Structure to design on (319 residues):
């Protein structure tokens, strides 16, 4: 049977002797466990499926550029942008600054625990601060499966451009393998220590051409001795997985709902955030909102009162 456990640590604030600390919400079922921290923008810090804790763990705070390219830790939601940017309002002319990975991670959402089809679900709802929107994520944990249900509504009177991506940071080791749909079209958003023929160059999964050779991206540790890249893919199918030996983490979604995927790879000297793989299932190119309008299928829009919904299902099938 699914179970939920809320654990709260208390801290004493100078002006509030009864302030509540960050706390954790722990959802578990047979073969699945998710830990959510409300005060960190409902970041998921523990994501267990198939007997493995999949998320990278690191205490280092990334810079804005690192965060936008997958350098953050845990599992968190990016909205209404991925890269930090400044937007100018068409109506008021005011410049609006949006931080890297959007503003959801900086706000504590409203939390609700509910039961759906016999499984417990934590529903997080954010109300936009810089823009008029409502963003909802439901996390349902049942035996062997974690399902994420999303919805966002434009609550304002003007059309709203947005980008969304889940930022899922995983460790990178010699045995890490990535599986995307064959021939998925990829675009280079950023590169360092490797030449994929420049930013904006296009390739087809899994073989990318560099200035010197053809490389197989399914085993990122073998691509080069020291490099980093941020890629965006148009998804012809809705199955993505990362494997470590016989263990596999698999995401399934409707590619009509989630048509893009960001992939960030970091293999540099050192540990922690210097090495990692980040998956970014995305609506819109997982980059800077102010830039994405110039990219094919880059920026979706929500009209006033419009709601958009999508889902991701996570499993750990055996090989």
């Amino acid at each position: 049977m699914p179970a939920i456990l809320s654990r709260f640590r208390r801290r004493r604030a100078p002006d509030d002797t009864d302030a509540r600390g960050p706390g954790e919400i722990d959802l578990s079922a047979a073969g699945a466990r998710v830990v959510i921290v409300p005060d960190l923008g409902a970041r998921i810090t523990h994501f267990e499926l198939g007997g493995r804790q999949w998320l990278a763990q690191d205490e280092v705070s990334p810079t804005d550029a690192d965060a936008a390219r997958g350098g953050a830790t845990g599992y968190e939601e990016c909205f209404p942008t991925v890269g930090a940017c400044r937007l100018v309002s068409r109506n008021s002319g005011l410049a609006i600054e949006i931080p890297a990975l959007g503003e959801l991670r900086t706000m504590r959402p409203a939390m609700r625990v509910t039961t759906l089809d016999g499984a417990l679900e934590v529903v997080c709802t954010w109300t936009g601060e810089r823009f008029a929107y409502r963003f909802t994520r439901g996390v349902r944990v049942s035996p062997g499966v974690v399902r994420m249900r999303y919805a966002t509504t434009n609550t304002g009177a003007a059309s709203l451009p947005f980008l969304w991506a889940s930022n899922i940071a995983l460790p990178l080791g010699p045995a890490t393998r990535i599986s995307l749909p064959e021939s998925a079209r990829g675009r280079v958003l950023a590169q360092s220590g490797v030449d994929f023929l420049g930013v904006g160059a296009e390739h087809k999964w899994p073989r990318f051409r560099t200035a010197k050779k053809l490389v197989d991206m399914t085993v990122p540790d073998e691509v080069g001795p020291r490099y980093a890249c941020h890629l965006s893919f148009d998804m012809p199918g809705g199955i993505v997985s990362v494997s470590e030996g016989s263990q596999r983490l698999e995401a399934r979604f409707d590619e009509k709902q989630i048509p893009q995927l960001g992939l960030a790879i970091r293999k540099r000297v050192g540990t922690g955030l210097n090495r990692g793989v980040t998956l970014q299932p995305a609506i819109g190119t997982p980059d800077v909102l102010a830039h994405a309008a110039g990219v094919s299928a880059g920026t979706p829009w929500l009209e006033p009162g419009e709601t958009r919904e999508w889902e991701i299902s996570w499993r750990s099938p055996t090989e």
Observations:
- Residues 64-71 form the longest helix (8 residues).
- Helices lie at 64-71, 289-292.
- The chain has one domain: 3-13+20-311.
